[in-house]
Amino acid sequence: MCGILGLLLHDPNTDSAPEICEGLSLLQHRGQDACGIVTCGPKGRFYQCKANGMVRDVFDSNSISRLIGGMGVGHVRYPTAGSFNNAEAQPFYVNSPYGIVFAHNGNLINTSSLLQYMDATAHRHINTSSDSELLLNIFANNLQQTGKFRINEEDIFTALGGMMQQVKGAYACVAMLAGFGIMAFRDPNGIRPVGMAIRKSGSGNDYLFSSESVVADAGGFGEWQDVRPGEAIIITRSGVSRRQVAPSATFAPDIFEYVYFARPDSVLDGISVYRSRMAMGDALADEVQRVLTENNLTVDVVIPVPDTSRVAALNLAQKLQLPYREGFVKNRYVGRTFIMPGQEMRKKNVRRKLNAMALEFVGKNVLLVDDSIVRGTTSKEIVQMAKDVGAKKVIVASCAPPIRFSNVYGIDMPSRTELVAYGRDTNSIASAIGADLVIFQTLPDLIESVRQFNRDITAFDCSVFTGDYITGDVDESYLAHLEGLRADNVRGKAMGTTEAPAVQSSLSDRSDGPGPKTNGTPHGRGSDVTLGSDGHSTMNGSDDTVGLHNSWNIS
Ligand SMILES: O=P(O)(O)OC[C@H]1O[C@H](OP(=O)(O)OP(=O)(O)O)[C@H](O)[C@@H]1O
Ligand SMILES: NC(=O)CC[C@H](N)C(=O)O
Ligand SMILES: [Mg+2]
């Protein structure tokens, strides 16, 4: 999962980067591997800073001050395609046509045929193994086909409509055209979230696109609206245009956003993540009661596995009238372990992150509540920790059903064999994680916990539980191919983390002064430019002569 953000400020002389950086820090839970911001300043010049690392590591006041311009795009990355190489940090950029900057959340499933098309037909060079760079180039190629010196919103809608027919998979995207404006669009199934919000600013409006509404709340934006599946929204200084660019398909947001990914204080597609997690706790309470009775067991205390499961665990405890105790204390300086790269790192960090308070466990039958059990890394460690400090019996309850299938839409679960529930029934899952008993939410209960807040949504992507993939075209051979490419033990993926030093690049540097730009000078905390998004690009893509730049000065 990644976080995407776009911002257009009414006053073009106010820099957007500080606010984009703030927003990215609010989306940090969606991606901890890399982040980046590209802004567009006077004369349509792009200013870029991106690198591997968390927001607080990549940006400081110095690097932010060099990102000038009243509109920009930001990204936090959790890789699901390609490697962890910092050349794949986003946003991506192509200089032709017009200068486009692009940030993507999701994952494409037909990259092989798209790459072939890029090579044989479009003659565009893709410089990384990132599906996001590919997606950007498909869009750029479609835009190029207009053959126009200056384009308008209609041309962009047409290019995006064409792109949506060519690509398959999940994509929520924010893009920026040099000197023109920002846009957001969402795949026809609406698998990944993105929305828009507005804030009054002087005589006009500031506009925000973000993966989650929490960014809008924090920035004082209102009127949050989700981008509809298959819809594109373009914002220029002249206003907002929106269009359904792809025929309607089944609207199926990924239910795992509600289970784990999104922040509880976000509202996605009209559903409060917090409320949905409360409902998951209520529903799970009934299942826990049923299974405990069946097994003739009692529970003394309910303990959440921080952080995500807390909301559900509290509701569950209240419903069962059991004491709720924070038996594990979380080190607030350790991030989310599930989205860390590599099993070794995830395992080590569960211990670094959580500490068990013996008093709350000793001599008790404890019910540990987690939002999900995926690889079992967390549950295996915490069950052991609970036993080590003297718990009598350890029962684990999960707000999500067993996860037995790969995710192909933007969550890094490519390999079924890495999943602890793969090929195991509930009893063998319990033995695998060392628990006395494991209790899972049923799928109908999970769906109802979320859907009750917006009955207009008739389907959710639940493929990790069912193996039914909403886009089609995901069969055994595709899954085997994906496993070969991306499983934890595949060298290219694992090695990517250490492959290259952190890179920060600029498309244009504030200190350069007027005139032709050289390749980005090192600044801030990064080093020099890599050939990132476009093999043909000199990275001077913000040249004054590019068609659309003058429109920046319209208002
Ligand atoms: O079975 P696993 O492979 O361990 O994955 C599932 C666990 O990972 C996540 O926690 P994480 O530490 O990422 O984030 P959190 O602090 O938001 O709960 C999730 O909340 C589960 O606790
Ligand atoms: N998690 C995501 O959304 C990842 C986006 C893209 N597939 C990448 O790997 O960079
Ligand atoms: Mg967790």
Automatic annotation (TrEMBL):
Keyword DNA repair carried by entry: no
Keywords linked to the UniProt accession: Glutamine amidotransferase, Glycosyltransferase, Magnesium, Metal-binding, Purine biosynthesis, Transferase
Gene Ontology annotations of biological process type: purine nucleobase biosynthetic process; purine nucleotide biosynthetic process
Keyword Heme recorded: no
E.C. no: 2.4.2.14
Gene Ontology molecular-function annotations: amidophosphoribosyltransferase activity; metal ion binding
Composition bias, Polar residues: 535-555
Co-factor binding details: Binds 1 Mg(2+) ion per subunit.
Active site per the UniProt annotation: C2
Region feature (Disordered): 492-555
Sequence similarity: In the C-terminal section; belongs to the purine/pyrimidine phosphoribosyltransferase family.
Protein name listed in UniProt: Amidophosphoribosyltransferase
Origin species: Mycena belliarum
Record lineage: Eukaryota, Fungi, Dikarya, Basidiomycota, Agaricomycotina
